[in-house]
Amino acid sequence: MKALVYITPKADILDPQGKAVGSALQDLGYEGVDEVKVGRYVTLQLKSQPVDQAKAQVEDMCRKLLANINVETFRVEITED
Amino acid sequence: MKALVYITPKADILDPQGKAVGSALQDLGYEGVDEVKVGRYVTLQLKSQPVDQAKAQVEDMCRKLLANINVETFRVEITED
Q1: What does pLDDT average to over chain A?
Q2: What is residue B81's predicted lDDT score, i.e. its pLDDT?
Q3: What CATH class does A2-79 carry?
Q4: Does B33 touch chain A (CB under 8 A)?
Q5: Given an 8 Å threshold on Cβ–Cβ distance, is B41 in contact with A36?
Q6: How many angstroms separate the Cα of B23 from the Cα of each of A27, A64, A75, B37?
Q7: What 3-state class would DSSP assign to B62?
Q8: What percent of chain A has pLDDT over 70?
Q9: In chain A, which residues have their Cβ closer than 8 Å to the Cβ of B40?
Q10: Domain limits of chain B?
């Protein structure tokens, strides 16, 4: 089974990377792009276990290592792939 | 409307950041984690437009700027949020 982790900068936190990408898109001529946020997408291949248990474990990993919970939020999805 | 972009290292490409996270998780005592891949999760706030058109435009942005298509793959989702 697999865990998909989506980590994004919190809404009220400055995201310089997102700002840079937004302005580069404008320079390339793309219009109508309002706000860009750049986060991380982490996938983990896990050994088979109950979904609830896997989710709790990966959320724990996020709090301890994968995300910086002061400035980032995370969401965990477990799939059976 | 919003575009969600998932960018991941290609399967056969070395992902040093993923390896580092995998080994840090092991050091923290997490077991049963086989493979970790670290990619990027980019969200773009777009002006209202037909979904097909938005998707094509964002895929174009991925090829030109957001992803390095030599070593990364990307997937674009459009939501009405």
Answers
A1: 96
A2: 77
A3: alpha beta
A4: yes
A5: no
A6: 39, 14, 22, 12
A7: helix
A8: 100
A9: 38-41
A10: 2-79
